[in-house]
């Protein structure tokens, strides 16, 4: 059974990746907004924001990476919705394939596309002056956090793609996710915020994830932030996966 699952997922993943390569504009679109935010905040607002960092782009980049992922997963919901509407799911169900492999192919496609977008954004950040003395271990830890976060948000996107009534509705779920980093430590330190806003910012997942990535890249002691970040990522991933599979079973029953 497991062998069939992996084989079926690999075949369907190839199908989804071919769609990506034929429409590279989706990856370009995914990177435009985060890069625009990075340019705006570094070159327009950066001089007025005090973060205690040598270069504001170093402080800003972790939050921009989160926005990149939040933007990218909207396309997963959109593509999944289109597959549902085209009847391709019904055709897959009539074939001897593992049922969950259809969803996992979309999820893994999202992971690949988002990793490409992240590499592009980091490349632009390097041109803007981003520098990090982090070693291989720190970069691997950053990659691990970003992969977990991408998987968590992608499974939320699966729920949206399965439940939406329109293509616009399928991708609109990502708007709050894109907005969330603005009420966190992604752009400014939380201690500059008024009381209620600060309380929310310090106790939502983006802040711990951003702080952990920022400390890793700056080679500072990470402390408990990395464990809080991992707990958020794993918790969201497990809950979203369970709800997505329940929604999928209702759709195909």
UniProtKB/TrEMBL annotation:
Xref: Pfam families: ABC2_membrane
TM helices/strands, residue ranges: 24-45, 57-82, 103-127, 139-162, 169-188, 226-248
Family as reported in the entry's similarity comment: Belongs to the ABC-2 integral membrane protein family.
Protein name (Swiss-Prot/TrEMBL): Transport permease protein
Cell compartment(s), UniProt: Cell membrane; Membrane
ABC transmembrane type-2 domain sequence ranges: 25-251
Location (main, coarse): membrane
Key words of the record: Antibiotic resistance, Cell membrane, Membrane, Transmembrane, Transmembrane helix, Transport
UniProt-listed GO biological process terms: response to antibiotic
Membrane topology per record: Multi-pass membrane protein
GO MF term list: ABC-type transporter activity
Keyword flag Cell membrane: yes
Any one cellular-component term (Gene Ontology): ATP-binding cassette (ABC) transporter complex
